[in-house]
Amino acid sequence: MGNALELQDVGRRFGALHAVKGVSLKVPPGQRHAILGPNGAGKTTLFNLVCGDFPPTSGQIIAFGEDLTRRPALHRARIGIGRTYQTSLLFTGLSVLDNLLVAIRGARKGRFSMLPSGAGGEDVTRARELAERVRLAHRADAEVATLSHGQRRQLELGMALACQPRLLMLDEPAAGLSPAERPELNQMLKDLPRDITLILIEHDMDVALPISDMVTVMKDGEIVVQETPDKITSNPVVNRIYLGQGHG
Amino acid sequence: MNLARTLLRAGGIGLAILVLAPLALRAMLPENQALFWIGNIFARALIYGIIALSLTFLATYGGFVSLAQMMVAGVAGYVLAITVQGAVPVIIGGFGYPVAILLALGAAVLAGLAVGAISARTNDIYLLMITLALAVGFYRFVETNIDWFNGYEGIRNVLGPDLLGRKFRDPILFYAIASATALSLYLGVIFLVRTPFGLALQGIRDNPRRVSALGYNVMLHRIVAFGIAGFIAGCGGVLATIYNIGISPGSIGLGATMNLLIISVIGGLGHPIGAFIGALLFAIFDTFAASIYDRDRFNTLIGAVFLSIVLISPDGALGMVRRLREGFARKPRAGAPPL
Predict the structure, then answer these.
(1) What ipTM was predicted for this assembly?
(2) CATH of domain B2-330
(3) Among A54, A114, A117, A168, which would you mutate to test the B interface (most chain B Cβ atoms within 10 Å of its Cβ)?
């Protein structure tokens, strides 16, 4: 079986800024892959390239054997790529349940349906299950604008899971969470089934390393190290550029 | 079940108001005055309200403030006047009202889809500008084209079909048809926004990037929403053309376009009912401007009302009512112990 995601020499320029430079990466199915790096390393740009927010200026993006390089963002969700964002992008005027319903219907037919699904409908049942899974069942009917930051991050994850992803990309899922909220997120990530390939950007090593099988470190738009989690913290290059230790 | 309850409640209240208002007027006023209110104020408010509903639907649930909705209503009105038998001058003619009305509504949907497609990549001020440009462009086109639109004079004698042995323009019959149309469209909007299409449309309003990442074709969704708004505006355009016994460029010009925006803002863009509240206020001021101050000062009066409402309550009369209700709800009852 091929890789869940394969990047071949992917690059992206914004005018004079070379945000991502010749990144090549292979993520096999089921792997938990963390992408680390200091601010400005190009991690989120790389995510946006994979998710089709804008096309790369060079290279190829292949997921599940399909070349996605020039395909629009909406196609990614339809082949099973779900993502979350660094700052929550939710539908604040809708309820938690409606957010999940929009997410559930996005990746399959019936998006244009002008017939409502009743309270006991299949979609609504799934949305309630998802709300339960991301521990938001008690706020299912609340408007998103009234949720706390941590609950919004949980809903972000629920929406990414709603399209039944084969590849889940999480952009700093722990960003802004209090220390009390982090263990809950950790548990949710650990509970994800193994048939979902997971790629996450995370600054918090305590969140990223325990769940990762492989870690990629980026700096200035390039991959500088790729190691297993047990070796990454002792890697001198990583210590120098990311952990701020051992200069020279 | 929630949707069914909401529809029943909204429909019940709407139907009650629409049926009770003329009955109450006939009970309270002499017949000629009651008919004046029904025919000149309520019927006109319903027509304006239907066209404004198309704008409110787009603005409230999609976040698109389109200034081309009066133009779309005008497309329906002109297609009806051009195709229907009996209109003067005869441009195509020959079609009975049922067919001409269907053609008019079809043309309005197409015009809505075209506006949606042309403006699909724009938002905010750019969307306003492009839809305003389309509205003014269409106005100038019909005004200067004699062969197809009879230029400045427009097309007259669009009387509407006879129904149940009565003339379509009979005040009571017209009011009944306009109110049934308004109620159906209003309930249709309330229903639509709870469907997968409607929820995705609200998602686009809040965050189009996320909607796209979830697998939706945002542009296509927008265009379809404009097509639906086109149908709503088209219904208003057909009724307006029959009500005015014809159509001329003046009824779809810049003034009419601005009036529609004023109606929507006065009523409140937060809920579809705002379109009808704004239209009723507008029709009352339009009718009684001469009594209040001076007929020629209607624009000054409605401008003052517009500014007052925008300053006092940016979400229109509807927001004002809601705030008053919340204020009353918060007020402790007499005798209640202090907190």
Answers:
(1) 0.85
(2) 1.10.3470
(3) A114
